[in-house]
Task: structure prediction
Amino acid sequence: MVKDMAFVAYSVRDIPRAAAFYRDVVGLEPGESFGDHWVEFNVGPTAFGIGNGEPLGFMPGTSTGASFEVDEIEAMRERLAQHGTEVTELYEFPNCRACFVTDPEGNRFALHQRKSSQ
Result:
């Protein structure tokens, strides 16, 4: 039985540069680090990890699928844009708002904000 999500992994070429982006620009909380080949960030109960996964078939710059829940999506989108990060417009969905971001390695992720149910 699956009981939780352990981690999400993205493959990058330049781990220090990617770690700085996710820490300093996106604002993720640093977690464990295993030398120069794997860095984790704490995202709720799940870890978001970056590393060079090329030997395992995870080509840098091709990762997608991570969605980070945020409280103020407009402010986060603006913060990323001010740092020169490629970020889409905000999209409205029935239960949420989202925008899509490309990191310096070419990986893509989403910023997501649930709409309150009133």
User: Anything to note?
Assistant: The chain has one domain: 7-114.
